[in-house]
Amino acid sequence: MTNTNHTLNSEEQTIIFRRIIAGHSRLRKHIYTMLKIGETPVCQCGNPLLPGQKLLVALQNGDMPEADCLLSKHKQGADHHIRQFYLDSALLQVCRMDRKSFADKLIRCRANVNDKRLYSVMLAAEQNCTNTIKRLLGCGVNAKEENFSGETALSIALNGGYNECAEFLLRLLKPSEVDIKRMAVRLARFGQSKTLELLACHYKLHKISQTLLRPAVLSGSKETVKTLLDLDIRC
Fold first, then answer.
1. CA angle, 37 then 41 then 45, to 5°
2. pTM metric for this prediction
3. pLDDT for 89-143, tens place per residue?
4. What is the Cα–Cα distance from 106 to 91, expressed in whole angstroms?
5. Distances (CA, A) of 53 to 4, 6, 49, 84, 204
6. Which of 3, 49, 84, 222 could cross-link with 53 by S-S, CB 3.0 to 4.6 Å?
7. Secondary structure of residue 216 in the 3-state scheme
8. DSSP-derived secondary structure for 168-186
């Protein structure tokens, strides 16, 4: 037999309250005004945002003071797995923004820096966020990790022409840990002479000379061909 005398705790009351007013914007606004707690942000479906969602919205809007405040309240009112999902997603967002100090806070809150589905270090490389990459690597992120396309943080930085980020990773990785031939051929094929020159400063590209000049010529980039010839790379 169902117990009808169950007393709802504060969390259950909040859930029911939100469900009742989720689809009624006027009622929601009126109740929040009466309670003097302000309008709660809502998602596109009309439901109030969870704390983790508010954190993501604040980060996407670049409102770091608000994000800081929300992070301090992040452990309230959500299932552990939901909290972790939004925490990891927030880390991805700050990697895109190169917010090293906020990345530190997320990592201290146990955001997962090594989640193979997320590849935070690769997102940081895509945005040339060298400082964030340094912080992630300091927390144990594997700089050699590959995504589902076989790309690494270094290959992403090189392909994007992000020389500062690429320079840092080139100094960090050993020659045996880098697929030099693959990266050099791609740079030659797409006419990225400056980045190819950077790669040549760290590795002896004449060892793969037979494979470089041809794609450079086919790319139609005279500057890349000149760079290879200046480096004394001949087919």
1. 135
2. 0.54
3. 677 777 777 777 787 777 777 776 666 545 678 878 888 888 888 888 887 778 8
4. 6
5. 34, 31, 6, 12, 49
6. 49
7. helix
8. HHHHHS-GGGS-HHHHHHH
